Amino acid sequence: RESMADLLKMARVVSTKMKKRRAASNKLVEYPRKRSVAAMSKYEIADLIHKTFPTEGYDKKFIRHEVTGEDFVAMEKEDFRAMGISKFNHLRRLLDLQLLRDPMRPPPAHDTESLGASARPLRVPFWRICRVRMKDPEIGSGEKKVRYVLRWDPPTPEGEDGVECKAKLLGGTSAPIVKYDVHHSIVHDGKRTYSVVQEHRKQKQSLGELENLIEEMRSNGVIILDKKQAYMYMDMEILQIDIVNERFSVSCSLSVFWRDPTIIDDHRAIPLLDKDDILPDAEIPIVLTRRGREDMPISLERLFANPVGSSVNVYYRNENLQPKTGVVRGSYKIRVTIKQSMSLSRFPFDRQMLQVFVFAGTEDWHIASEPPVEWLLPDQFCTSSVTCVPSSRVESEYKCFPPIARLDANRGGIRFTARVQRYQTYYIVTAIFPMFILTLIGAAGFLYTQLLEGRIVLVVRLMLTIVAFRLWLSGILPVISYITVMDIYLLTSYVMLTFVALESVLVTWRITSAEVALYVDIVSAVIYVVFWGCINLGYVTAAYTGFLFQSWDVVEELNLKSFERHVLVGNTMDLYEEDGGGKGEEDEDFGEGSEESKLEDDGRVQ
């Protein structure tokens, strides 16, 4: 009986030690946190929301409702919906943010049925997808095959970019990826499921590089569950270009297509016709419910970036469902005035790229550059993604080039860009040619009279006339801190007339002989005319060959730099702090309006 008691006691001790060792091996690595969410003020919460959703403007909603850290941790989905945050993916990310920051609550449970995994996904920090070559036991003979694995870095105690997270000690590398759910940001390697949200992606791996790897994974047999697909088409008319206030007005017709055959059955849309009145192969007019509007690729409440005040006017709206293909088409006609910095360094030989940035749900939707063939869209929507026509007022001043459309995934939208080039005839006739004649008349100062006073009076009168031209130009141009081509021409005229005044002073004071003075005046007049003629010949040659025009790539780069200084939030103009955003390397070309784009480098004077 005593020996049996000793054995049971020894067994309990061994069992306790085994449990401790097993718990130590499976223990999560926990690092000290700076502050929990519950201890944050309303301004710190707004800053946290801005870092998580830099392009949505949710931080202003939190400031307006004075949400503190304690309020944020206790908020549920209904509370976020009441604040105007209705997208499912955004709600899930906000709930994850609560759980990620609060150590007292368990990690969230994600829907992993699409990946066939029952375990909760493991959130990994600072992740990236890598291409590796490893042996395949099915092939044998030591031959290696291309595989794709998920790698992540261990979090630092301070965190990176304000992100505090946990990760199991799994070596930082997963097994070969079997499935990748892009829509729900979940990766499965056959053993474990990982949550790979874009906020924790390694900044060294750009979004464009990740999309290329996803296409390679698809071609190599990895199951890719894509986002929902949508397509956008815009037909815009440029109503006005205000150079002084640096803004332009457009009237655009936006068509949005997405496939949702169960939109009526799920009560996300209400048909306006009875079943008996529906003709075969005809579109059904529908009205979207609140859930239907939340599932759209766009939001009409926050549609454009950098509009001027409340200038967005949606004066026509219509949705239709094609029952044969299940494609929903939303047609919207909108007028808007957009703020944009103009590049005027080559004025009047300047080119402008007028960007209409449309916010799209790129986190939940894949915006296609071309509509799928099975959608059976009309030909007018398949030739190009954007068309542009100028109004009669704009057409008289600018030449329009074929527009372009680019997907900007980093900023969450599409840039529809109209390209215009100014006609120079008006400025040549009204400003450049009169200044050429006035400066040429300055040569008469050498032979006008031998009196110094008469020559100085002539030069001063010519300079005052050129100053009047400069004042006229200042009324049609904004206040800018750089010099334009027109300013250089004016300064050249000032220098030429100043040369006439200096020559007159030197001849009057230094040369006493009348014959020598006349000879010097004649030589100076000839040099003046020849030099001024060479300068204007150089200007004409540069304008004719297109040297005075900036290339479209340079104009686009300048516009993007000015565009990045503002937050891409509708009806607001705030400073934007760039967090590793590129200069457009990940932009996807949507194509140009027509084959006439070959003429875009034709920079001759119109």
Automatic annotation (TrEMBL):
Keyword Nuclease: no
Broad class of where this protein is predominantly found: membrane
Biased composition (Acidic residues): 577-594
One Gene Ontology term of the molecular function aspect: extracellular ligand-gated monoatomic ion channel activity
Entry keyword annotation includes Cell membrane: no
Residue intervals passing through the bilayer: 426-448, 460-482, 488-509, 516-539
Any Gene Ontology CC annotation: membrane
UniProt keyword list: Membrane, Transmembrane, Transmembrane helix
Top-level taxon of the source organism: Eukaryota
Residue ranges, annotated region (Disordered): 577-606
Pfam name, any one: SAM_1
Domain SAM residue range list: 56-96
Biased composition (Basic and acidic residues): 595-606
Protein name: SAM domain-containing protein
Organism: Lotharella globosa
